[in-house]
Design goal:
Blueprint (H helix, E strand, L loop, with lengths): L2 H5 L2 E5 L6 H14 L3 E4 L4 H8 L5 E6 L8 H14 L3 E5 L2 H5 L3 H15 L4 E4 L7 H13 L4 E3 L11 H10 L5 E5 L5 H10 L3 E4 L2 H12 L1
Parallel strand pairs: 1-2, 1-8, 2-3, 3-4, 4-5, 5-6, 6-7, 7-8
Helix pairs in contact: 2-3, 4-6, 6-7, 7-8, 8-9
Length: 222
């Protein structure tokens, strides 16, 4: 897979706690340079990112309930609405991990459904944070997200104890229907990492190492 093809699978993230508006602007430059699928930012920086990417075809994605998912449903719904009003094209939301682990399926389903409804025509990716879940819990989270209308299920925030693995991606791909995509995120640092996750079934990859990965891809192709 060459750099241009890989770029279409990449979502460049600028999500570090210490990130500034200048970091988001630089992230937008990286996203535009490589024409990746999207730039993922925190809610406070959605307007900045959206303006920088206007007319480029690169999407602006806002995280919601990030990174731990412990906010109330109403807070996540409000975050999603505000992000879309500020220019977000898509929403990446973190589930209520504790509710999932307690098998409070109604809580988890309702929360995802409410955010999907608030997002309207804007796709929602549901981050299940696989590092904290058993295999059974991963399967349950994926099924709930798919039933609640998620466009994608996503492995990780990148702030948990472990990021994306090929095994988790393959599991998620088996569980959700083909109409639901799989996004791998967290710990993706090299071209080899990226290829392994795509081969396992990932449709999208979230990474802050976009420039390095695509430079490596370009050098391999050369």
């Amino acid at each position: 897979m060459n750099a241009a093809d890989l770029a279409r699978h990449l979502e460049h993230s600028v999500l570090a706690p210490q990130s500034t508006e200048d970091d988001v602007a630089e992230g937008a430059r990286v996203a535009l340079r490589w024409q990746v699928r999207s730039l993922v930012v925190k809610p406070a920086f959605v307007a900045v990112a959206s303006r920088a990417l206007a007319g480029s075809g690169v999407r602006t994605v806002a995280v919601v309930g990030f990174p731990h998912g412990g906010e109330t449903t109403e807070t996540k719904v409000t975050e999603a609405r505000e992000a879309i009003a500020a220019g977000a094209d898509e929403i990446d939301m973190v589930i209520n991990i504790g509710a999932l682990r307690r098998r409070d399926t109604g809580v988890v389903f309702n929360e995802i459904r409410r955010v999907v409804e608030a997002a309207g025509r804007h796709p929602v990716k549901v981050i299940i944070e696989t590092a904290y879940l058993t295999q059974a819990e991963k399967r349950l989270a994926c099924r709930l997200a798919a039933r609640a209308g998620a466009a994608y299920v996503k492995t990780s925030t990148g702030f948990g104890p472990k990021g994306a693995t090929a095994a988790d991606v393959a599991l998620m791909r088996r569980i959700v229907p083909r109409s639901v995509g799989v996004k791998a995120s967290g710990g993706i640092r090299t071209y080899i990492d990226a290829l392994a996750l795509i081969r396992a079934g990932a449709d999208l990859l979230g990474t802050s190492q976009t420039d390095a990965i695509l430079r490596e891809a370009a050098s391999v192709a050369a």
